[in-house]
Amino acid sequence: MEIRRLAGIILLILSAFTGTIAFRLATPAIAFYTRDILKASMLSVSIVSMSFVLARAFSSVFGGLMLERGKRLVYIGAIAMMGNALAVQLYPLTSTWVQVAGIKLLNGFLNGLSWPMAQFVIAVATPKEIRARVTAIYFFFGSIASLLGNYVYAYTIDLGLGGQMWISSAFFILTGLIMVASYILLYERITPKRKKTPDGERPSLDPKRVLIIASLMAVIVAFTSGEITYVYVSEALGMEKATTATLIGWAGFLAAMLSYFASWLADVRSERRMVLLTSIMAAVSPLLAAIKTAPTVFLGIFLALFAFQSFRPISRKVLASYHRSSLAIGGVNGVQNLSTFLGGMLFGFAYSLGELHGVVTLNLALLAFTPVSVALLWQGVKLKGGGK
């Protein structure tokens, strides 16, 4: 690859690192602030967490449609990222969980504009033969930052929510500036919409089936998403907040590191087989996490994160070949976020069901995902590819 193209891709990967640090530092801080300081119920924490993904779902699709009207609008994504710096400053001013949820909606809208655009640009700017692996590296750097962000939270607890949000704001501004520089370098390669021609580039898997699998997988792995994860693990296993954040960060890091190999196999072997494998792992993850022991809870979280981290670059590679690629990638982000919202709300409502005690103690809220797990397995088996 020429220097300009390579530099732009590297900057986008760097933006995944800095932006995720900003987001991941804020997530546990807001989670424990809402639960412990504002005394919110688990359902209220779920609403706070899922309000973010609900807003992100709709703005992801809106961003894809907007980008089709002119590639110059890609810079709006970078501006939206910097807007998060102002939004997070509002959290220390809240006195009710409803106010926190309102700010989360704003954060979700801004993130829905920024991240799908970045994912679209890195997918279309990368050569097809290495697209899944480069996109996996992009998400991997985000996961490294997720681990570090949890450590930053653990080591800055004494600063309080206000101090932590200033750190988060600084990283959000830096991320937006990096995105601007990257888009300038890659501007000539940004093609949101192409003419559909018989000899044009085509997706190797059925895009509609990919969207269905993305939706079902996102419903299931919702228990690893946002504030609800930290609260569940801390309360289920009786762990300290800092320890909880650190261990969840390590689970995400290891999952992302191993997901690169799944992306490599998708590039050089079979995309369909890797989608089937990730579907199986996602399907069994809530069943394992329902067993209230540290090994099974973290194994369940790890499998869910590994499946999701592996599936994301494969799905972006497939959809980048679609003639309306910006809308397709914005759409899969929207579908996944809406499904995560539904899964998170299911978990929040079912949390009051309590536990089933026997040889092992089972969390009934996680067992409620069983029908979705069965549906995901069925869709994974039915998936057919037109290429590899």
From TrEMBL:
Pfam families: MFS_1. It is a multi-pass membrane protein. The keyword Transport applies. The chain crosses the membrane at residues 46-66, 73-93, 105-124, 136-154, 166-186, 210-233, 245-262, 327-350, 356-378. This is MFS transporter. Its main location: membrane. It comes from Thermococcus indicus. Gene3D superfamilies: MFS general substrate transporter like domains. Keywords: Cell membrane, Membrane, Transmembrane, Transmembrane helix, Transport. Signal peptide: none annotated. The keyword Transport applies. It is found in: Cell membrane. GO terms for cellular component: plasma membrane. One of its GO terms (molecular function) is transmembrane transporter activity. The lineage of its organism: Archaea, Methanobacteriati, Methanobacteriota, Thermococci, Thermococcales. Residues 8-382 form the Major facilitator superfamily (MFS) profile domain. It comes from the Archaea. InterPro entries: MFS (IPR011701), MFS_dom (IPR020846), MFS_trans_sf (IPR036259), MFS_Transporters (IPR050171).
